[in-house]
């Protein structure tokens, strides 16, 4: 055991923020960066007229539309801990990027709009978190507006997501009548608009009440809250740290990211309660400890042109063991080839800093000339290390794509290859004509692809919709090209594997009936 390395690993907190679009995920990320001293003022995504954009939304199209469509990575120090935040796209069309990001974290923060409660996209993302069994911390946001009853919101966690919610604090009013938060965990009251910023916390007496001489003590909102606190004490869930770490219970915090109320209390509790990086299963059955001496990690995301001036491509690595240092020689497990990691960066909002050292839990960006693919494992030392494969998805929407200007084939091909390697769109080619066909989980991915081809690669593209299709792979040994028809288009994926794009489920059933011995498969 390497005690010095273990001490460093134990200071790491690596988490993703998941939510429905517009629940305030980017805003809470900004407030955390503000508390970590990384930025001077939080730019809310919505303030587009002022040009004060959110730090974590770096792509031009995100600024125009006010949504996050790529996972950003941010790092900062807070209370002696090293925080790695992965801000995931809330937009459902970008769920693949989010699923892969969730493979690279040790905990998740779920942001819920207190007026809307749990929405479909949050439900989908929570399912992935649940499968991985990682701890979830819940932030009920937008208390500065009128929302649903807090008791209903906590009950909904159990009803809809099947996870027990335990309140760590409780609102005293909301919207116009909000007075503050009754902080159960810290035995105090946090005032919403204190007369003096240095006195925003009021102590509670042994009975858990305000002293009678406090002006708030006879406020009707406070008295209502005290009734609810009594209810919670009698019937609510008790905080159980083991259950939280096992992903069976979620601590629930209330607050308003927009007005930066309750965020600091939340972050302090999170840093204290969230787990440090744990061991990983590698080579299918081996356990790899985070303080193992040899460096290892896996690539969960690739992003081209994060800096438009330099046409760069960055592979994001989750460090899982050992220590990263500049000039480290590693082996790429997929090819067995050696790679020297000379140029690596980490991210403090939109600024990049050269990495001096990184340990398990840290996220490092490697400048990549095309060596890496999503899901790649890299390791130092003689013993081969291969992490479990990342989930792959079967696209549902398909488009034919070709360059508008035939003279610009070179930039078209370069853009196609780089954007496909990022994994947001899948590339196929017609089996006979070699025409390019793109597949994606959602329509927005095509829009972003078209936008980026034009703006980053100076290539206008023609896109013709093939609509919804059912994609099914076929064993090459069973394939006869004559099986294809207008209702089941035969294509090959970028690895050369053949698959059919069926017009609909009926066309797929017809194929099964005609060729009962042919086995068709799908991804997730």
From TrEMBL:
Record field: transmembrane: none
Predominant location category: cytoplasm
Localization terms from the record: Cytoplasm
Matching InterPro entries: EF-G-like_DII, EFG_III/V, G_TR_CS, P-loop_NTPase, PrfC, RF3_C, RF3_dom_3_sf, RF3_GTP-bd
Superkingdom of this protein's organism: Bacteria
Gene Ontology biological-process entries: regulation of translational termination
Residue ranges constituting the Tr-type G domain according to the UniProt record: 10-278
A single GO molecular function term of this UniProt record: GTP binding
Binding site for GTP: 19-26, 87-91, 141-144
Family: Belongs to the TRAFAC class translation factor GTPase superfamily. Classic translation factor GTPase family. PrfC subfamily.
NCBIfam families on file: prfC, PRK00741.1, small_GTP
Record-given protein name: Peptide chain release factor 3
Organism: Lactobacillus porci
């Amino acid at each position: 055991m390497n005690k010095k390395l273990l001490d460093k690993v134990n200071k790491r907190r690596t988490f993703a923020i998941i939510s429905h679009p517009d629940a305030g995920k980017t805003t809470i990320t900004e407030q955390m960066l503000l508390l970590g001293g990384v930025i001077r003022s939080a730019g809310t995504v919505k303030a587009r007229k002022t040009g004060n954009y959110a730090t974590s939304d770096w792509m031009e199209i995100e600024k125009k539309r006010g949504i996050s469509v790529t996972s950003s990575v941010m790092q900062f120090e807070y209370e002696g801990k090293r925080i790695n935040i992965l801000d995931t796209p809330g937009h459902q069309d970008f769920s693949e990027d989010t699923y892969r990001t969730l493979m690279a974290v040790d905990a998740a923060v779920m942001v819920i709009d207190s007026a809307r409660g749990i929405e479909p996209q949050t439900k989908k993302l929570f399912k992935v978190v649940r499968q991985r069994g990682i701890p979830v911390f819940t932030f009920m946001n937008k208390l500065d507006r009128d929302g649903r009853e807090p008791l209903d919101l906590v009950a909904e966690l159990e009803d809809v997501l099947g996870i027990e919610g335990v309140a760590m604090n409780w609102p005293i009013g909301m919207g116009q009548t909000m007075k503050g938060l009754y902080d159960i965990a810290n035995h105090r009251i946090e005032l919403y608009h204190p007369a003096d910023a240095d006195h925003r916390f009021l102590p509670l007496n042994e009975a858990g009440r305000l002293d009678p001489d406090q002006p708030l003590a006879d406020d009707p909102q406070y008295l209502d809250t005290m009734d609810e606190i009594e209810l919670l004490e009698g019937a609510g869930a008790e905080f159980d740290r083991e259950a939280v770490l096992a992903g069976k219970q979620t601590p629930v915090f209330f607050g308003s990211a927009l007005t930066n109320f309750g965020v600091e209390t939340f972050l302090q509790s999170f840093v204290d309660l969230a787990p440090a990086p744990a061991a990983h299963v590698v080579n299918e059955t081996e356990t790899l400890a985070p303080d193992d001496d040899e460096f290892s990690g896996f690539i969960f995301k690739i992003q081209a042109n994060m800096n438009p001036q330099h046409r760069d491509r960055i592979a994001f690595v989750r460090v899982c063991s050992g220590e990263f240092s500049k000039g480290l020689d590693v082996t790429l497990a997929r090819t067995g080839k050696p790679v020297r990691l000379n140029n690596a960066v980490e991210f403090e909002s939109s600024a990049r800093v050269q990495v001096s050292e990184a340990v398990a839990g840290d996220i490092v960006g490697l400048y990549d000339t095309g060596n890496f693919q999503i899901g790649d494992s890299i390791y130092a030392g003689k013993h081969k290390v291969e992490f479990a494969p990342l989930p792959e998805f079967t696209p549902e929407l398909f488009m034919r794509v070709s360059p508008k200007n035939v003279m610009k084939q070179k930039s078209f091909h370069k853009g196609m290859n780089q954007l496909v390697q990022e994994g947001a769109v899948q590339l196929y080619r017609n089996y006979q004509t070699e025409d390019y066909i793109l597949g994606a989980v959602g329509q927005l991915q095509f829009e972003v692809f078209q936008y980026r081809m034009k703006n980053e690669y100076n290539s206008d593209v023609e896109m013709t919709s093939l609509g919804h299709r059912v994609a099914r792979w076929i064993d090459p040994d069973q394939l006869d090209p004559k099986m294809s028809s207008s209702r089941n288009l035969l294509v090959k994926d970028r690895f050369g594997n053949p698959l059919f794009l069926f017009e609909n489920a009926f066309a797929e059933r017809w194929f099964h009936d005609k060729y009962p011995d042919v086995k068709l498969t799908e991804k997730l």
